[in-house]
Design goal:
The chain is of the alpha+beta class. The protein has 18 helices and 12 strands. The longest helix has 20 residues, at 134-153. Bound molecules: cobalamin and iron/sulfur cluster (2 copies).
Length: 422
């Protein structure tokens, strides 16, 4: 039955079908009419955010239409036909440690959403499991839902996961999926914030009486995320200076990373989970069994607290085998290695010096500069014990590796290295 308008029965159908397709949460919101008070508020927030330089070098956020308006400041600018938006969310919190827990001194951190891969990890004799990107299967599910919606109610639709010219978190909040926490993430009382969002823009109209009730803001007086952010990217509640966020620095920022922000990066080499790891609403929620496509979403154990030496030893072929089709493809090997060099510097581990020296003397100027910084940092901050162990015969220029190990063991192929760890 084609309706062209949302009605309670269709909303009920949406809940049932989205859940059957594998989304844990779904809601629908009306798209603001041009110049309505709510459109004006959202647009002015977005403009102010960009104009304050908060987006750093993320040029895709700054795109404008022919009239000079920021494309993302209002849904209707790029999609004048859209009247409503379905927002779906999937919890990706598979079991695993938190980034804030004790971890080996030689380990880095890859954001939780990027752990996924196709099969349980091999023994080292089998090829590494192929990477998968949550965005891909979210989009597949959204297309299925949009297609069924079209068959049932008619209208035009368009699906996005991440890439569309719209602010998904604002839409999610308005669709009742959750509230926007002080860390700027969408949080749901029962599911926490390990949520990936996907949206279906639709031409169906949502009568005002069917609008979702906004989720109550349950941050209260808590400020854990703001207090824990190492780079002071959360400038005040609900406000982020993305140019300082470690997720931006490690994933989006090209070239060199500002020196002042390198130490705060700690051991993060891809993304950052700290402001979600400390959030009390994330203590319990786990992805529901059955909501994740089991074969393709398993966390790859090697990517949890990954060994920095192992990541550093990846050549182009190995990087491709591990990360093709995964979110890490975005940084390519060169930027991942830049981040690894900084994490090595922050680790104060003398054992990384030989590899850092190779990078420092190599051809990639960004990596060379980051390595040079890391070497001086390790030399400044390495433990007394390590500094003593560093005493070397004049002229060799190399610090000894930890006792009983050789250069070859430390920086050979990833497979050998992995065997060494297990
Ligand atoms: C650019 C981007 C980033 C940038 C900037 C993040 C940011 N806060 O803006 C960087 C690279 C830093 C980033 C990091 C991460 N991202 Co990101 N990112 C995006 C992207 C593509 C655009 C976001 C955007 O437009 N930002 C501009 C600002 C203005 O908007 P906003 O923060 O999203 O929301 C603002 C408004 O809602 C408004 N607002 C609402 N209420 C109120 C109230 C007050 C008082 C005020 C002042 C403002 C205000 O202010 C909010 C906060 O500034 C979206 C996808 C999309 N198309 O929306 C994903 C998205 C936001 N990211 C996502 C994720 C998962 C992450 C990371 C967790 C990844 C990681 N582990 O490293 C981190 C989280 C860091 C964090 N604390 O936010 C998810 C968020 C899911 C969720 N549960 O909220 C999204 C929705 C992608 C997806 N499809 O799932 N991301
Ligand atoms: S993701 Fe990390 S750097 Fe970014 S706001 Fe959260 S804690 Fe701060
Ligand atoms: S840590 Fe506290 S303030 Fe931050 S999002 Fe969670 S509940 Fe809100």
């Amino acid at each position: 039955m084609v309706t062209d308008t949302w009605n309670p029965e269709l909303q009920q159908w949406l809940q049932e079908r989205s859940s059957a397709i594998g989304f844990e949460l779904a809601g629908v919101a009306a798209v603001d009419a041009p110049n309505s008070p709510s459109e004006t508020l959202e647009a002015s927030r977005f403009e102010a955010w960009i104009e304050a330089g908060r987006a750093g070098e993320m040029e895709f956020l700054k795109r404008r239409d022919a009239g000079g308006r920021f494309l993302r400041s209002s849904v209707q600018i790029a999609h004048p036909w859209a009247n409503s938006v379905v927002v779906c969310a999937m919890n990706y919190n598979t079991p695993g440690p938190l980034s804030i827990e004790q971890a080996p001194a030689n380990s880095g951190w890859i954001a939780r959403y990027a752990w996924s891969g196709e099969a349980p990890s091999g023994t080292g004799d089998t090829p590494p499991p192929a990477g998968t990107d949550y965005h891909d299967f979210l989009l597949t599910r959204l297309h299925r839902l949009a297609c069924e919606l079209g068959e049932r109610a008619g209208g035009e639709s368009k699906c996005y996961v991440d890439t569309g010219p719209l602010v998904e978190r604002s839409l999610a909040a308005r669709a009742g999926v959750g509230w926007i926490g002080k860390n700027t993430c969408v949080l749901n009382q029962g599911k926490g914030s390990w949520l990936l969002l996907g949206v279906i823009l639709s031409s169906l109209r949502l009568p005002p009486q069917l609008a979702a009730l906004p989720a109550a803001d349950r941050c209260g007086s808590c400020t854990r995320c703001i207090d824990a952010c190492p780079s002071e990217a959360l400038t005040s509640p609900h406000q982020m200076d993305a140019s300082r966020c470690i997720a931006y620095l490690t994933i989006e920022k090209k070239g060199t990373i500002p020196v002042a922000l390198r130490e705060p990066m700690g051991r993060q080499v891809f993304g950052c989970d700290i402001c979600q790891d400390v959030c009390p609403w994330n203590r319990h929620p786990r992805a529901e069994s059955g909501s994740l496509p089991s074969a393709s979403i398993r966390a790859r154990q090697e990517l949890i607290n990954p060994d920095l030496g192992w990541l550093a030893s990846m050549d182009a072929g190995t990087f491709k085998r591990w990360f093709k089709g995964s979110p890490l493809e975005r940084t390519r090997r060169s930027r991942l290695h830049r981040n690894v060099a900084i994490a090595m510097g922050n680790s104060a581990e003398m054992r990384f010096l030989p590899h850092l020296r190779i990078w420092r003397d190599g051809e990639d100027p960004v990596l060379a500069e980051a390595s040079s910084w890391a070497i001086s940092k390790i030399e400044r901050t390495g433990s007394l014990e390590q500094v003593e162990a560093r005493e070397e015969p004049p002229g060799t220029g190399n610090a000894p590796l930890p006792s009983g190990s050789t250069d070859r063991e430390y920086f050979s192929t990833d497979r050998e290295y992995w065997h060494g760890r297990s």
